[in-house]
Amino acid sequence: MAVDTFTATQFEAVLPRHKETGEPLWQIQSQSGPQDRELVYQIPVQGSVRIIIRSSINRQTGISADAGEDSIRVYVVDAMSKPVFGKFQAYITRAKGWDVRLLAMLKRNYKLAMMVGAQCPNCKPGRVVVRISRSEANPNRPFMTCSGSPDQLACGFFQWLEEPVLAAKGQGKGGKK
Ligand SMILES: [Zn+2]
User: Fold this and answer.
1) How are beta strands 141-146 and 158-160 bridged, if at all?
2) 17, 47, 84, 156: which is deepest, by most CB within 10 A?
3) Whole-number Å distance between alpha carbons of 177 and 29
């Protein structure tokens, strides 16, 4: 599959900006050493939660990598740079239309990242964790549960955060729950 080649400037033009001020909502993540071959961006969301975007743009040349290293990766991390949705990691290929897909993916991750650590709607002092289902019935579908608080055990609260992804074509209406 053919992949688009783009410069850091072209990539950054796609990343979100503040609606009124036009200021970039992203920063280049400072890095040194062996990660030189990839420009990494971050978008702060709330608290220490942020979205990381690995662009596949070489820091030295400022141009995206050749096919073979063709994906842009997006994931959400906490202050310790630990992914907060478990092993969920989303990527998009650099085939045509990557800019539209990247924005959609950033919006999705932003929405989920906003929920991380929120007050549990059921027991209040408890805190919410966000995870991604990998079950056969609900693949790649995010949900939140209660993780309790220092003073209180988890209350068992559970809620899906997105509509179900339609299962493979052909299953149609009345598919398995
Ligand atoms: Zn709770």
Assistant:
1) antiparallel
2) 84
3) 41
Distance 119 CA to ligand 1 centre (A): 8
**pTM exceeding the 0.70 threshold for the entire prediction:** yes
Q: Which of 19, 46, 66, 58 is nearest to 109 (CA)?
A: 46
What would the DSSP string read from start to end of 104-173? HHHHHHHHHHHHTTPEETTTEEEEEEEEEE-SSSSTTEEEEEE--BTTB-----EEESSPPPPPSTT--T
Judgement on whether residues 76 and 127 belong to the same structural domain of the protein: no
Expressed as residue numbers, the domain containing 18 is 1-115
Residue whose entry in the numeric block shows the structure tokens 């209040």: 124
Q: Are residues 94 and 24 in the same domain?
A: yes
Tell me the CA–centroid distance for residue 125 and ligand 1, in Å.
Answer: 7
108 C-alpha to ligand 1 centroid (Å): 24
**Among candidate residues 115, 146, 164, the one where a domain is terminated:** 115
Shared domain for 89 and 19, answered yes or no, is yes
Split into its structural domains, the chain has a count of 2
